[in-house]
């Protein structure tokens, strides 16, 4: 996990994401951080039918101002975190990116090149493109995504809780998080009574076993996971995301959707 992509959205959450990225790179001896403020093309905001030259110019100016404000936050943070250009050369490569770009190009051009994507939890202020970028990050990159709660201001990764279910998503998430587990002071595995401990993907790790009694309701089970995180005072939740089809999730509800709607703790998620 040498390279992370930080996807910025809300200005008041930018520094939180940057701090988390720096912390995780330090934990795993990573060497590169790409910071993306993706400006939305006018056609993705209004569509071709409702677009005029004037409205396109206004939208582009608004997006340029948004990206410039984020760059100001980034530039100040970079100097405080890593020092001058000469000083940071020996620490980590940090790149600022603010192209006008569509979601599919974000994923093909940046997301799949990173080992880890870092972004804020879904926010009611997010535009349609940013909502689409979140789902694309989960479903299309094949990479783990770290969701960071607003205003998170403490270390993450010292006490990790793994929500276990024997699915491809969980196995991928656990395997991707292995480098973090090796650095953790405590690792807990939350599992149902009939679910075997996944020792084949936790080599060298001696986790504490916690039992989860499933209720059959996605929201209730998801809240039980969050309650366990709180009770154990874990600072990172690792889980597989969206274990069922999208149709099933729409009809029956999704534990992943519930957890992403309750930004209580950083969530390391992989589909």
Report on the architecture of this protein.
With 271 residues, the chain is an alpha/beta fold. The chain folds into two domains: 3-148, 3-Layer(aba) Sandwich (Rossmann fold), CATH 3.40.50.620; 159-270, 3-Layer(aba) Sandwich (Rossmann fold). Helices cover 42% and strands 18% of the residues. The chain has helices at residues 14-28, 42-46, 53-82, 85-88, 103-109, 128-139, 168-176, 178-181, 218-232, 246-252, 255-260; strands spanning 3-7, 32-36, 93-97, 116-120, 145-148, 159-163, 186-191, 208-211, 236-240, 267-270. The protein has a ten-stranded mixed beta sheet with strand order 3-2-1-4-5-10-9-6-7-8, sandwiched between helices. The relative contact order is 0.14. Mean pLDDT is 88; it is low at 244-253. It holds the Pfam family Usp. Residues 220-268 form the UspA domain. InterPro entries: UspA (IPR006016).
Quick structural gist:
The chain contains 11 helices and 10 strands. The chain has 271 residues and is α/β, with parallel strands linked by helices. It has helices at residues 14-28, 42-46, 53-82, 85-88, 103-109, 128-139, 168-176, 178-181, 218-232, 246-252, 255-260, and strands spanning 3-7, 32-36, 93-97, 116-120, 145-148, 159-163, 186-191, 208-211, 236-240, 267-270.
């Amino acid at each position: 996990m040498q390279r992370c992509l930080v996807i910025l959205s809300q200005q008041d959450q930018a520094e939180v994401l940057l701090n988390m990225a720096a912390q995780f790179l330090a934990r795993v001896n990573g060497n590169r951080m790409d910071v993306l403020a993706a400006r939305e093309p006018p056609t993705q905001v209004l569509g071709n039918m409702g677009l005029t030259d004037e409205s396109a110019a206004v939208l582009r100016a608004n997006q340029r101002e948004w990206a410039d404000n984020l760059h100001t936050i980034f530039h100040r943070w970079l100097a405080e975190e890593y020092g001058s250009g000469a000083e940071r050369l020996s620490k980590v490569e940090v790149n600022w990116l603010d192209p006008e770009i569509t979601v599919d190009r974000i994923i093909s051009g940046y997301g799949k090149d990173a080992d880890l994507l870092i972004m804020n939890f879904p926010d009611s202020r997010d535009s349609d493109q940013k909502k689409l970028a979140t789902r694309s990050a989960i479903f299309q990159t094949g990479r783990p995504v770290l969701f960071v709660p607003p205003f998170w201001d403490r270390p993450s990764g010292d006490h990790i809780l793994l929500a276990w279910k024997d699915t491809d998503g969980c196995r991928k998430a656990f395997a991707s998080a292995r480098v973090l587990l090796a650095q953790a002071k405590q690792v807990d595995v939350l599992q149902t009574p009939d679910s075997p401990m996944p020792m084949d993907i936790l080599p060298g790790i001696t986790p504490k076993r916690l039992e989860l009694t499933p209720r059959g309701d996605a929201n209730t089970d998801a809240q039980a996971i969050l309650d366990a995180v709180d009770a154990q005072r874990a600072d990172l939740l690792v889980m597989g995301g969206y274990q069922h089809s999208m149709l099933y999730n729409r009809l029956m509800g999704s534990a992943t959707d519930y957890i992403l709607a309750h930004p209580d703790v950083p969530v390391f998620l992989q589909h």
